[in-house]
């Protein structure tokens, strides 16, 4: 009889531990870039840490510098090997990915960028036209564009000797949702500040080398312009590289801002070469893993929302040391992503995807 009860206790313990661990699931992330991209490497890194906590198996497939056709073709390999596909809509390929995922009955989640206004009007929200499209998350890109423009202008006024401010803007791929929204933020700032104007908006396709080449041409065309707004850190880094090769001093002779919190940008803010960078949205991939873990364990996030928007924070010379102290060089494996999950954290009533909550765990 004792052996019988021991057996029952053992079985109960095994099932209890399995329940606490949650069901294992497979996610494929179609990375829009390659394994040398600083921002997307950070996104992938945080997704991996989240999956270690959430009993998730992560497969990363690269589509090489936003090769939108390659990204769509990746779905052909996934029909039987994944439970969910996570992707960014770039160059308008979001609809093609959603269509193919729907045909193959692969549940999908889009993050970091939104569909175009026209596409949103035609296809609506997740789980409407596309039943297998579970949800979406994207950063407040317009606010990021506004805040970086404000930081750039504030510094510009210190060196303008009372003159009006003229800005040259480097945008990403013009059709990308992030590029559209960040430019809107810049333009919104300009509308609200009569001493500021935009001389030209030019696409550098998110790339440092293209931004550097175009900065060289633009500086020759507009030698008196000192303010260069960029929709992404890599492009701001290109501006800085181009300026230094001309013998200019970034932070004095020219000013620039970016978005993404790339490692190089962090160093350049610390060195006074870059005015500011908006970021923190590299956490979005990890937040999506939390939502999918809950969904897979029968706690559907649709009860709260199908669309989640994340906020970006601004790093400047005023707070860069605090960020480096709290985040860089820390053991990120210490972050407990179960705290953000409704399945693992039964006391959680509302999702709180706040970067400050991450920093608190690293103190």
UniProtKB/TrEMBL annotation:
Keyword Signal among UniProt keywords: yes
UniProt domain Periplasmic binding protein: residue ranges: 28-292
Example GO molecular function: carbohydrate binding
Gene3D superfamilies: 3.40.50.2300
Domain of life according to the entry: Bacteria
Keywords: Signal
Localization: Cell envelope
CDD domains: PBP1_ABC_sugar_binding-like (cd06324)
Example of a GO cellular component annotation carried by this entry: cell envelope
Pfam families: Peripla_BP_4
InterPro entries noted in UniProt: Peripla_BP_I, SBP_2_dom
Entry's Gene Ontology BP terms: transmembrane transport
Family: Belongs to the bacterial solute-binding protein 2 family.
Record's protein name: Sugar ABC transporter substrate-binding protein
Organism: Piscirickettsia salmonis
């Amino acid at each position: 009889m004792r052996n019988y009860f021991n057996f029952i206790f053992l079985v109960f313990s095994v099932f209890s531990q399995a329940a606490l661990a949650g069901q294992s699931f497979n996610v494929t992330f179609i990375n829009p870039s390659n394994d040398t991209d600083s921002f997307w490497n950070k996104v992938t890194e945080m997704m991996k840490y989240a999956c270690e906590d959430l009993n998730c198996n992560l497969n990363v497939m690269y589509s090489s510098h936003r090769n939108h056709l390659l990204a769509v073709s990746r779905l052909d390999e996934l029909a039987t090997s994944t439970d969910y596909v996570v992707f960014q809509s770039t160059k308008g390929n979001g609809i093609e990915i959603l269509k193919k995922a729907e045909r193959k009955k692969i549940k999908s989640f889009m993050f970091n960028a939104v569909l175009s206004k026209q596409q949103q009007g035609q296809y609506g929200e997740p789980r409407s036209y596309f039943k297998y499209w579970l949800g979406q998350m994207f950063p407040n890109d317009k606010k990021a564009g506004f805040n970086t423009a404000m930081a750039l202008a504030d510094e510009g006024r210190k060196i303008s000797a009372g003159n009006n401010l003229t800005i040259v803007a480097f945008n990403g791929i013009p059709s990308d949702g992030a590029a559209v929204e960040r430019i809107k933020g810049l333009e919104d700032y300009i509308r609200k500040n009569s001493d500021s104007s935009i001389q030209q908006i030019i696409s550098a396709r998110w790339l440092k080398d293209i931004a550097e080449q175009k900065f060289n041409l633009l500086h020759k065309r507009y030698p008196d312009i000192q303010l260069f707004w960029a929709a992404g850190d890599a492009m701001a880094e290109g501006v800085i590289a181009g300026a230094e090769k001309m013998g200019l001093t970034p932070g004095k002779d020219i000013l620039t801002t970016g978005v993404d919190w790339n490692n190089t940008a962090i160093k350049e803010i610390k060195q006074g070469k870059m005015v500011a960078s908006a970021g923190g949205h590299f956490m979005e991939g990890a937040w999506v893993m939390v939502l999918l873990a809950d969904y897979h364990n029968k706690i559907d996030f649709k009860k709260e929302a199908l669309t989640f928007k994340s906020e970006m924070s601004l790093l400047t010379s005023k707070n860069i040391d605090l960020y480096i102290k709290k985040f860089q060089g820390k053991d990120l494996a210490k972050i407990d992503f179960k705290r953000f999950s409704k399945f693992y954290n039964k006391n959680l009533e509302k999702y709180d995807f706040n970067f400050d909550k991450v920093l608190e765990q690293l103190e």
